Amino acid sequence: MKKTILTLLLLLAAATLVLRFIEVEMPPSPPKKPPAKKCLAGEAAQPGNDSAGEPLATCAELDAINQAYLRDIKPIFAAKCLMCHGVVTKMPLYAKVPPSSWLVRYDIKEAQEHLDMSFGFPFVGKPTDVPQDGLEEVIEVVQEASMPPFIYKIMHWHSGLTPEESKKILDWANAGLKTLND
Ligand code: HEC
Predict the structure, then answer these.
(1) Where are the extended beta strands (E) located within 17-140?
(2) Average pLDDT of 24-42?
(3) Domain assignment of residue 115, yes or no
């Protein structure tokens, strides 16, 4: 009995190993809406004022943060985060084939509902009612090294952020927060 279980586990591990090198096209996902509003420079990007009576964020500020995101951060996220937190066209085959797909399917669905980072900044998703939230969430998960989720890191062993990548992301997010909060 023990032996059977061990053999099964080994087979599963071997299958995952092979499958992770094969990429498959994803069926076109239902179009997700990027934020519809077009932000004009000088306008307030969202309702509400900070304690000093200033707008919470101006369009020009958001645009500057987004430009830096697209240039410096999105390439990192594209490799390590967007397969869950975005709309992607390719996926490792194991994410489609049972039983390994069962392990990641929930994560991918959850992540897309939670936070979609493929349209640029501000991010689309629950924690991003104000753009600052998106930055704070990212800082938190990078500092705690809690993303990608553990089970995914096991199957995809280069998926964790390197120290250099973490630093880049933290620098960007902290600079963004400073811009918005000042
Ligand atoms: C395997 C899929 C997967 C990958 C890859 C992944 N995430 Fe996530 N992420 C999730 C899921 C699922 C959640 C929501 C549940 C949770 O908080 O654990 C989440 C939540 C988050 C949140 C919100 C946290 C909160 O407390 O609400 C942030 C920010 C985040 N991820 C950032 C990242 C970053 C940055 C990367 C790349 C370094 C990344 N994620 C890679 C699945 C993933």
Answers:
(1) 23-25, 90-92
(2) 57
(3) yes
Counting Cβ atoms within 10 Å, is residue 87 exposed (0-12), middle (13-18) or buried (19+)? middle
**If pLDDT is split at 50, 70 and 90, which confidence band does 178 have?**
very high
**Is there a domain that residue 89 lies in?**
yes
Pocket test for ligand 1, best of 114, 140, 158, 159 (most atoms within 8 A of CB): 114
Structural domains in the chain (count):
1
Q: Find the radius of gyration of the CA atoms of the chain.
A: 19
- Is residue 16 one of the residues assigned to a domain? yes
Give the other-Cβ count within 10 Å of 123's Cβ: 24
- For residue 8, how many other CB atoms are within 10 A of its CB? 11
Cβ(180)–Cβ(77) below 8 Å: no
- CA–CA dist 40, 10 (Å, integer): 57
- Ligand 1 pocket: which of 72, 74, 77, 81 to mutate (most atoms within 8 A of CB): 81
Torsion, Cα of 17, 18, 23, 27 (10° steps) = -90
Q: φ, ψ for residue 160 (rounded to 5)?
A: -70, 155
What is the pTM assigned to this prediction? 0.78
- Domain of 138 in residue numbering reads as 2-24+56-181
